[in-house]
């Protein structure tokens, strides 16, 4: 089956839903492909207290569901599936969604970034219940508590430093005795009296730790476990066609334009700095407005 659409949106997090809302209100009849993580990272969170308009907070899954309903109200079409490959050398662009082909006059990539996880038992079950990959999202819930951060790079140092605003103690656990973090970030963490380090150590299962050199295993009670081992942008399907940075995030110019005319990127797939629901929604709005201008210029 093959079809042609004015605009196709890849991803159903805050950026994708917002892009769908704005393009639908512009009567562009957008098609949104939900992707392999429907709802994005908000679907893995519990209470969201920092999204404007919800003074009492709102559950993450409910927030993304509300966004979807709002976009559908104006005519956005949602489809289960994920992009398996794309040919951006031709226009309309050729997208393979499973066994189906979709031609797009314009493309918005809002496929997000997936947090890297440890892969230990029960980790996924505890996401939002003591296990998190976002200090700015969940740190407040552990005020006055002791917290663990896993990692040895800048992401881990940034998470740990931010969490000292709330926690009584933050323990950084790293599998080696040397760190990938920049010198300045590592020094900031070492100079903070609330932060301590456990090196040559890995998390085995739950609250059990193991020293990789001695083999010693012991229990390490904590109130929360934060993953500071980075994120993986979901952009591999565009390898060789769109420009990325060293870590795979899509590069954009003029806010949301990629190097291919008619292809726009928004949200966490191109934002390695902020990674917040509200900033993702903002760039989704920008991408939608740029798509509308692009299609007007090209007579679509």
Descriptive report:
The protein is α/β, with parallel strands linked by helices and 300 residues long. It is 23% helix and 27% strand. The strands form five sheets. Strands 1, 2, 5, 6, 7, 8 and 19 form a seven-stranded mixed beta sheet that branches. The protein has a five-stranded parallel beta sheet with strand order 10-17-11-12-13. The chain has a three-stranded antiparallel beta sheet with strand order 14-15-16, with no helix packed on it. Helix 4 (154-163) packs parallel to helix 5 (183-191). It contains six helices and 19 strands. The radius of gyration is 21 Å and the shape is elongated. The mean pLDDT is 91. The chain has helices spanning 14-25, 60-73, 135-138, 154-163, 183-191, 277-297; strands spanning 2-10, 31-33, 47-48, 58-59, 77-79, 83-87, 93-97, 100-109, 113-115, 131-132, 146-150, 169-173, 195-198, 201-205, 208-211, 217-219, 224-227, 231-233, 263-265.
SSE blueprint and pairings:
Elements: E1 2-10, H1 14-25, E2 31-33, E3 47-48, E4 58-59, H2 60-73, E5 77-79, E6 83-87, E7 93-97, E8 100-109, E9 113-115, E10 131-132, H3 135-138, E11 146-150, H4 154-163, E12 169-173, H5 183-191, E13 195-198, E14 201-205, E15 208-211, E16 217-219, E17 224-227, E18 231-233, E19 263-265, H6 277-297
